[in-house]
Write a structure and sequence with these properties.
Elements: E1 10-12, E2 17-19, E3 22-26, E4 29-33, E5 40-44, E6 49-51
Antiparallel strand pairs: 1-2, 3-4, 4-5, 5-6
């Protein structure tokens, strides 16, 4: 079971503000989403959390 990442606020590059993320589980993958724009900010890949950078 993955540790919960949403103990602090994280920065959303689309909203340009600090947000409390919302966790979503799709099958075996865990994602942390921005509650305003629903963009994935972090993903859990088995052992570590990985930040998803904005692609321009």
């Amino acid at each position: 079971m993955a540790m919960k990442l949403v103990t602090h606020r994280t920065y959303c590059t689309d909203c340009k503000c600090l947000v409390m993320g919302v966790q979503e589980k799709n099958g075996n993958q865990l994602k942390l989403l921005c509650p305003k724009c629903k963009r994935p900010l972090w993903t859990f890949s088995g052992y570590t959390w990985r930040y998803l950078k904005k692609i321009d």
